Amino acid sequence: MPRTIIAGNWKMYKTQAEAVEFLHEFLPSLDITPETRQVLLCVPFTDLLCLSKNLHGSRVQLGAQNVHWQDQGAFTGEISAPMLTEIGVRYVVIGHSERRQYFGETDTTVNQRLKAAQAHGLTPILCVGESKAQRDAGETETHIMSQLEIGLQGIDQTNLVIAYEPIWAIGTGDTCADTEANRVISMIRSQLTNPEVTIQYGGSVNPQNIDQIMAQPEINGALVGGASLQASSFARIVNYEGA
Ligand SMILES: O=C(CO)COP(=O)(O)O
């Protein structure tokens, strides 16, 4: 069985002070068994060091939201994998649709970032998903298959998480129907060589829909944006009802 991983993606939200305040409320309300349910917070770079100290000994792991493919060099504004692992980061989100849309991320650079993350022992969370126009044109499957084909070239599937995030469902409140998310995730799994890869759903996950999403057999977790910013709402999500 793939491991269940519920991750919060804070995007560009929360100063350090706000992050610490979040933890004070969030950590005591966790009601999970870490062996069966992994919880992650993927936070802005400036929050990582402080959260690493505050999460030490807790049941929550830390993730970054991007990583460069070189270990060091003249790459102004970038952060490398050794810089992340040194401060206790274990996961990194790669190829989020917002990076693809606003910052020129391509499947090729996604692949380079995945390789660098794995080379340093980070677990990458590869984000894939179709736009509304692609869905309407019936191109959901071909688009995702092409993202996977290029993104996963030469990638070790024993240290990998995939997040299916339909772009039209991100931040819109327009959640993909859970059976449809299950169908697409099943298609994604059919493209993989390792059946144990955790595949998450992301896109308007909230405390009201998490139980139903997690009841789907192919869905192994969630990547949560807006609803991970409030401690009470993210706690309800990670404490979802189910196995
Ligand atoms: O992009 C997302 C997580 O990476 C999803 O964002 P929302 O949960 O705000 O829709």
UniProtKB/TrEMBL annotation:
For this UniProt record, the keywords arranged alphabetically read as follows:
Cytoplasm, Gluconeogenesis, Glycolysis, Isomerase
Q: Which parts of the sequence bind substrate?
A: N9, W10, K11, G171, S204, G225, G226
UniProt lineage: Bacteria, Bacillati, Cyanobacteriota, Cyanophyceae, Acaryochloridales
Record gene name: tpiA
Q: How does it assemble?
A: Homodimer.
Q: What is this protein called in UniProt?
A: Triosephosphate isomerase
Q: Which SUPFAM superfamilies would you find in this protein's record?
A: Triosephosphate isomerase (TIM)
- Keyword Oxidoreductase included in the entry's annotation: no
Under which pathway is this protein filed?
A: Carbohydrate degradation; glycolysis; D-glyceraldehyde 3-phosphate from glycerone phosphate: step 1/1; Carbohydrate biosynthesis; gluconeogenesis
